[in-house]
Amino acid sequence: MSLIAHIDELKEKHQTIQRQIELEMARPLVDGLKVSELKRRKLLLKEKIEKLKSGQDVALRA
């Protein structure tokens, strides 16, 4: 799998988690623990995407 394809896959997972958060927040009784866990996973994905992107930029400049 190429780096770009991997980044795209991670972005897709990030968007899926965002949709899950939105669905959970729309419920009458929001599960705060579940929302917190989803947000944590989303943040980890975002950090990984940014790290891979910065590595990609360095690789392209070399």
State the helicity in percent bands: over 70%
* Main pleated-sheet profile: none
- Mean pLDDT, to the nearest integer, reads 91
Distance from first to last alpha carbon = 21 Å
Rg from Cα? 15 Å
How many distinct beta strands?
Answer: 0
How much strand content do the residues show? Answer: under 5%
Total DSSP helices: 2
Output the structural class. Answer: mainly alpha
H/E series: HH
Task: Name the poorly predicted regions.
Answer: none
**Basic shape:** elongated
Topology record:
Blueprint: H1 3-25, H2 32-61
Would you give an account of this structure?
It is a single chain. This protein is mostly helical and 62 residues long. It contains two helices and no strands.
Summed up, what is this model?
With 62 residues, the protein is mainly α. Helices cover 85% and strands 0% of the residues. α1 (3-25) packs antiparallel against α2 (32-61).
Question: Top keywords for this entry?
Answer:
62 residues, mainly alpha, 2 helices, 85% helix, elongated
